[in-house]
Design a protein that fits this description.
Blueprint: E1 4-6, E2 9-11, E3 44-55, E4 58-69, E5 73-77, H1 84-91, E6 99-104, E7 108-109, H2 115-121, E8 123-126, H3 138-145, H4 152-157, H5 162-174, H6 190-202, E9 208-212, H7 220-233, E10 238-242, H8 246-252, E11 255-260, E12 263-268, H9 270-274, H10 277-284
Parallel strand pairs: 5-10, 5-11, 8-9, 9-10
Antiparallel strand pairs: 1-2, 3-4, 3-6, 6-7, 11-12
Length: 286
């Protein structure tokens, strides 16, 4: 049976539910979601081990390995082309790796699953450009994102209950949009649309949030409020933030992972990585 120790944490053994071709890369067989529960008993939400991805000879990820703790807020930085977006693509099932393993908690081998199944397990991703339903109200966007029946017949019968309404109002308050509940989403500022998309993810009760450049294009005030929001969410979800804004990283960071050429170059506190000569050379400059 397979087992490996990563950063002091034992990665889970593969489940026996479905045959897995090769090392778990692009040839891997898809399986089904056996259970909706995610076993976080070892205190780790995500294991990434020796993941490699190549595109036409270019190695976007090169034996990338990292672990994300349960309810941890992790910042990921690095130069353009370091592999940050590809890492998120692989975790969410958008891109299949050539080699490596990715486990969600102890119970789910993500390389066996398709994108919708991975999202259904509790991994939510926000892309760089906010994607909201601009012709609908802010409230309706959150309602649409709630965990509810998605097939046509069940949707026709489903009605918003008091509990769901309370949950929507709670999420709107979390993302600083309570006063905009009936506002048409398309009229929001760029920063507010970013918050709305985060709110749509929160409405799905995610275990792990992947946020790709959440403050890109925001004003200084919006950036500050986004930092406050993420610090409030810390401890409720595992959060991975990919960002270039170092002032924002300084506001929210606990552990910072620096990627370079598809691998982890350095990891530690922001002060530690800022003092690392390798990080200075390839990313921060002097």
């Amino acid at each position: 049976m397979y087992q490996v120790v990563m950063d002091g944490q034992a990665a889970p053994e593969p489940v026996e539910d479905a045959p897995l071709a090769g090392a778990g890369g692009r040839a891997a067989a898809f399986g089904r979601v056996v259970s909706e529960s995610v076993d976080l008993s070892h205190g780790v939400s995500l294991y990434v081990e020796d993941v490699t991805v190549s595109f036409d000879g270019f190695r976007a990820l090169n034996k990338l390995s990292l672990t994300i703790g349960r309810d941890e807020l992790r910042c990921v930085i690095g130069p353009n082309g370091a592999g940050k977006t590809t890492m998120m693509d692989v975790i969410t099932g958008k891109t299949r790796p050539d080699a490596g393993r990715i486990f969600f908690g102890q119970s789910h081998d993500l390389l066996r699953l398709r994108e919708p199944d991975i999202a259904g397990l509790g991994i939510g991703r926000k892309f760089q450009k906010p994607t909201v339903f601009e012709a609908m109200s802010v409230f309706d966007n959150i309602e649409l994102a709630l965990k509810s029946p998605k097939d046509a017949r069940a949707s026709l019968r489903w009605r918003l209950g008091a509990g769901q309404r309370d949950r929507i109002e709670e999420v709107l308050a979390q993302v600083r949009l309570a006063e905009c509940a009936r506002t048409i989403a398309g009229t929001l500022s760029h920063g507010q649309k970013q918050w709305l998309e985060i709110g749509m993810l929160l409405a799905q009760d995610p275990v792990l949030l992947l946020l790709d450049e959440p403050v890109a294009g925001m004003t200084d005030e919006e950036t500050m409020r986004t930092a406050e929001l993420l610090l409030e969410l810390e401890g409720r979800h595992a959060i991975v933030v990919v960002e270039h804004d170092m002032e924002f990283i300084a506001q929210i960071s606990r552990t910072v992972t620096v990627l370079h050429e598809g691998s982890v170059l350095a990891e530690g506190s922001l002060a530690d990585v800022q003092a690392d000569d390798r990080v200075i050379e390839v990313y921060l400059g002097r």
